[in-house]
Structures are given as structure tokens and as C-alpha cells.
């Protein structure tokens, strides 16, 4: 890694610009990880990275165009800037063109500070506790598999309009699988974290042990609609997909589930029967995220012209009613609606809900308790119908107690329809999505009770 500071690279790129505008950002990254299999650590490692992104804006007479070039390491800045400007000249006018952001957000960060870093030392308490869990699992005749990762990314963003912004983003996750030696039974527990100081290995191991005990009895059930308790991890995977589709332009033009029949979008429509609020807040405790936009390529959800724009807290669904959609500034101007930026976290809550998952389970006469979902794919964008599989534990609940594990299923459900049919939400807790945690980890969700979750077919997966 070059000794050149990220801030200096940003300043050099801005100074080298001959374009009509420029945004440059540098992301300094570090990562530490542990991986284990069959009650034994297999690998550990630490790494560092640097990414330099230059976005140049050129007015060729017909309108403003944008060109982005990205390099790893410490590139020759003059060449990178020249390549970005050429990319802009080759691109043609951008339909999302807007004046670059010049207003500094409320929390710009400390531009002059060195980047935050992580190291293998983040696991100083975690690793010994994991070793103890290995021994206890071996004594039960069970195997533990999984991994722990911690990443730290510091972003320095500068613009030709004078912005100088910095943000430190820690991201941590743990996945713990319990299996029998013949791999006939498998269960899962996981959590997200900012610094591993709040991770209880004993708690995760106890969850795995309990589910392994539940799975000793096998019960085969046919496909059908079942009362189902969706735990926070499963809810987060469904809500993340819903969030990713909340683009105002797609709704306004009739291309997604938030389009109103006959034209326009469904803002103001009731989506949830319960008073649920789906929201994002860059200052949510434990799920803190960047308070400004960092965009390398334009899409329906973000624009390179909006780099540096503040990302305040926003309610997407408020008390069950659709309140906002993601809307870059250019589309906001065209539709005379407010610009609304996505935030890198997501929270679903019923403010009045206090029930724990244990209390919801105890109140279940007969139903299913899921662990996680995986291989989620979109079937129909107009209804947001998704399909996927259950994974690592589907349990039958009878008279308030788990009586055994059942076969896996393929499901067909729309998260929008689920919100409309859910009859109970538990208290919200921080959770780790299973399917999407390579891309999105900062979520807090409740357990949801759905009276008729659609298990469309039996899955042979085990």
C-alpha cells in the first residue's frame, strides 16, 4: 500500500481535472476473518485494500455527461482523471444530470483523520469462546461450521463544489452452523455486529444446541399454507428485497409493485394490516450508516450527480401506509416530488409490540417456526412475488411447544402481500439476513406471524 494519504489522492484528482465538474472518492478498507469446520479453525487472515473512483462531468453542448473510472491500489492519478473525462465525453448526455451537490451535510466527518482499521485482534475474546463451543459440541457428538468477518471501510469524498466528506463504516457478521456427523441434520444461528464486543458465542452456540435438540424428531409434512412464525432473519431477507425494489421511477412508470393501477405510484396506500413502520436511519444505534450518498454509477435508486447529498432518516412505510420511495434528485425534479435517498440500513417495527419470539411460539396452537430462507428469486415484479427455499431448520409447533423438525419447502410469497396478511409482530431486534448478508447486514426486524404462508412444494434439500 502506498504511503500516499487518501485525502491527498482526492485533492490531486480534483486539481488535475479539466472537466466541468468532478467527484472523487477513495475507500480505504481492512478486513479480518476466521473460518472453521468440524469443530476446528481452518483459516484466519487479515487484508487491506484501496479503491479510487473518479467521476468526471463534461458538458458537450447537448447536455452534461458523466464518466466513471475505478482503480484499485494507488493508480497514476493523472491517467485516471484523463480516462474518466474521456469516458464522460464518450457517454453522451445523462438523463439524470443535475448541478453537483454543494451543501455540506450535517455530519461531514473528520476529513484530516487517518482511516479507521480493523485487525485480527478484533477476535481476542471471540476466538477463545469459540474454542470452548467446539469442545462442548464435540462432547454432544455434533459439529460446528461457520465464519466470522469484520470489515472497516473509510470513505473520503471530495468534489469540485467544495465538499470534503469522510465516513468510517464497520461491518461484522458471524454465522454458526451445527450439524450431525452424517450431515443429516443442520441448523443455523447468526448475528451482525459493529465491533464484536457485543457478540455472545455462548448465546449463539446455545441457540444451535437447542435447535439440534428440536431436530432429533423428523416429521414429514405436505406442501400447503401454514400458520408460520418468520424469525427476524427471514423477515429481513424479505424486507431487504422489498427495499431494493422501492424505486420511484419504476413505480411511476408502472414497472413495480408500488405502481398504482391507471398511473402514478401507491404512496398513501395501506400495505400492512398492522401499524408497522419500515424505516432507515443512518444514526440508528448499532446500525449506523453513512449520512451522505457515495455513488459510483447511476441507477434508478441513485445518481452520480447526487454524490454528497445528505441521507437523513426516512420512513418508507409508516403505520402500515406507504410513505416514501427512493427518488434521485433528477427524477424528483421531473415529477415535482421530494428527493429521497436510500440508506444502508433497514428497520421494521410495530411501536406497540412487546412479545418475544418465545411468547409468540407459546401462543401457537399449530404452525411452523422457520430458521432462514435462501436462494430467493423474483418471479413477478408487478406483485413482487418471490420464490425460494427454507433452510437449516423448519420446526413444527404444537400447543405452544416445538415437537420436531419437518422437511424443507419451496415457498412462493410476496413480501408486500405478507405485510398485508401478518396478524402479529414481535419486538424488533437486530438481526443478520441469511441470503443477503454479503451485501446488506444492518437490519433490525421483528418475528412476524403469518396465518397462511405459502409452502408451494416440498423441497428435497436437507
TrEMBL record:
Highest taxon above the source species: Bacteria
Domain Metalloprotease TldD/E C-terminal, chain residue ranges per copy: 224-456
MF (Gene Ontology): metallopeptidase activity
One Gene Ontology biological process: proteolysis
InterPro entries noted in UniProt: Metalloprtase-TldD/E_C (IPR045569), TldD/PmbA_N (IPR035068), TldD/PmbA_sf (IPR036059)
Stored PANTHER family: CONSERVED PROTEIN, TLDD PROTEIN
Name used for this protein in its record: TldD/PmbA family protein
Biological source species: Blastococcus saxobsidens
Amino acid at each position: 500500500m502506498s504511503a500516499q494519504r487518501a485525502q491527498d489522492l482526492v485533492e490531486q484528482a480534483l486539481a488535475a481535472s479539466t472537466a466541468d465538474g468532478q467527484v472523487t472518492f477513495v475507500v480505504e478498507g481492512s478486513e479480518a476473518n476466521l473460518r472453521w469446520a468440524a469443530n476446528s479453525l481452518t483459516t484466519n487472515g487479515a487484508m487491506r485494500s484501496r479503491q479510487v473512483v473518479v467521476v468526471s462531468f463534461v458538458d458537450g453542448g447537448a447536455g452534461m455527461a458523466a464518466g466513471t473510472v475505478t482503480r484499485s491500489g494507488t493508480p497514476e492519478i493523472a491517467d485516471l482523471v484523463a480516462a474518466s473525462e474521456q469516458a464522460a465525453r464518450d457517454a453522451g448526455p445523462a438523463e439524470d444530470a443535475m448541478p453537483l451537490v454543494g451543501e455540506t451535510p450535517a455530519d461531514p466527518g473528520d476529513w484530516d483523520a487517518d482511516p479507521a482499521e480493523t485487525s485480527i485482534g478484533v477476535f481476542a475474546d471471540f476466538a477463545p469462546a469459540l474454542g470452548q463451543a467446539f469442545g462442548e459440541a464435540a462432547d454432544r457428538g455434533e459439529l460446528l461450521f461457520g465464519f466470522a468477518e469484520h470489515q472497516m471501510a473509510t470513505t473520503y469524498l471530495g468534489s469540485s463544489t467544495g465538499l470534503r466528506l469522510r465516513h468510517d463504516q464497520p461491518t461484522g457478521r458471524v454465522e454458526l452452523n451445527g450439524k450431525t456427523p452424517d450431515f443429516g441434520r443442520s441448523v443455523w444461528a447468526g448475528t451482525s455486529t459493529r465491533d464484536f464486543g457485543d457478540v455472545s458465542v455462548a448465546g449463539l452456540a446455545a441457540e444451535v444446541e437447542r435447535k439440534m435438540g428440536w431436530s432429533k424428531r423428523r416429521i414429514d409434512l405436505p406442501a400447503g399454507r401454514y400458520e408460520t412464525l418468520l424469525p427476524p432473519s427471514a423477515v429481513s431477507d424479505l424486507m431487504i428485497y422489498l427495499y431494493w425494489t422501492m424505486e420511484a421511477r419504476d413505480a411511476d412508470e408502472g414497472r413495480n409493485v408500488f405502481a398504482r393501477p391507471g398511473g402514478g405510484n401507491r404512496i398513501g396506500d395501506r400495505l400492512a394490516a398492522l401499524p408497522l413502520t419500515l424505516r432507515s436511519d443512518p444514526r440508528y444505534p448499532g446500525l449506523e450508516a453513512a449520512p451522505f450518498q457515495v455513488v459510483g454509477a447511476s441507477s434508478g435508486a441513485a445518481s452520480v450527480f447526487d454524490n454528497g447529498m445528505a441521507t437523513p432518516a426516512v420512513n418508507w412505510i409508516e403505520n402500515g401506509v406507504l410513505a416514501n420511495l427512493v427518488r434521485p434528485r433528477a427524477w424528483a425534479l421531473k415529477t415535482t416530488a421530494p428527493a429521497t435517498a436510500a440508506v444502508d440500513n433497514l428497520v421494521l417495527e410495530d411501536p406497540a409490540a412487546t412479545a418475544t419470539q418465545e411468547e409468540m411460539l407459546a401462543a401457537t396452537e399449530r404452525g411452523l417456526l422457520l430458521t432462514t430462507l435462501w436462494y430467493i428469486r423474483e418471479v413477478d415484479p408487478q406483485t413482487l412475488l418471490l420464490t425460494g427455499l427454507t433452510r437449516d431448520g423448519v420446526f413444527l409447533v404444537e400447543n405452544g411447544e416445538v415437537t420436531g423438525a419437518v422437511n424443507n419447502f419451496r415457498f412462493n410469497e410476496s413480501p408486500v402481500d405478507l405485510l398485508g396478511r401478518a396478524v402479529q409482530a414481535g419486538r424488533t431486534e437486530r438481526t443478520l439476513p441469511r441470503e443477503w448478508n454479503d451485501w446488506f447486514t444492518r437490519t433490525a426486524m421483528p418475528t412476524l406471524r403469518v396465518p397462511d404462508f405459502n409452502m408451494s412444494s416440498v423441497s428435497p434439500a436437507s
